[in-house]
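Progress report, Aim 2. The chain analyzed during this reporting quarter is listed below.
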Amino acid sequence: MNEVSSGLFNIGDILSGFLGQALAYLPRIILALVVLWIGFRVINWIVGMINKQITARDIDPSLAGFLGSIMNIVMKAALFIAVASTLGVETTSFVAILGAAGLAVGLALQGNLANFAGGVMILLFKPYQVGDYIQAQGLEGFVREISIFVTRLETHDGETHFVPNGALSGGNITNVAKHGKIRIHVPSTITYDSDIDTARSAILNVVGNHPQVMNDPAPDVIVAEMGNIGVKLITRVWSEPGNVPGVTAATTETVKKALTAAGIKAAIMPDFVGAK
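Predicted structure tokens for the chain:
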């Protein structure tokens, strides 16, 4: 019985000591929580201000998100160190542990570090920006977002591709529409006994009527090749990158109808029709 009573007293002493320690640290814990709450609000405000300033200066919108995310991570890491110091944790030891953990994570994520470096290089040298239409790594599409590690591409068919920034920065990139317009080539073939000037006039009279075909630069028709079955013509029109599929299809149909209406004998060649 005495042993049980002694054990209960020991447990009571332990709980009493624990409660005393908790009460002693309670002001620090409350202060740490207050600092954490205020710090998060201040960081969100600073990141928002940075994004607004970048947007107001008409800088690449992808840069705003990139810098915002970096600043967010750095300031939150500094905030956690400050909170740890408030709780009485030795900041030198904390920083050393954080550095060791960062090194371990860095070694484990070497590929992602390469992608991060690639993202920085892309933002610095700007081979493409958000909204451009590019061809790279066997893919092509509109650049919708440049994040820390990947670039998000969206194709005309609505497919979304996430391409690592490291591969993009170290490979060949074709910026198809850096200036906001793209030339579309539509081939057709007329027989040798057809008049080239008549065919050209018939095409140019109607091909520019499409609302998505630009008047400047104006459409033109060139003789591309003397083929086995006739003279190959190329109708060239300019449009915005997002309109390529619709304008290509519409121009192909318009050229065929124009040649037929003008009495020009035409043959459809099995060539690829697309943008260059």
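The CA atoms of residues 219 and 237 lie 5 Å apart. Strands lie at 133-136, 139-146, 150-154, 160-164, 173-175, 182-190, 220-226, 231-239, 266-267, 274-275. These observations will guide the mutagenesis work planned for the next reporting period.
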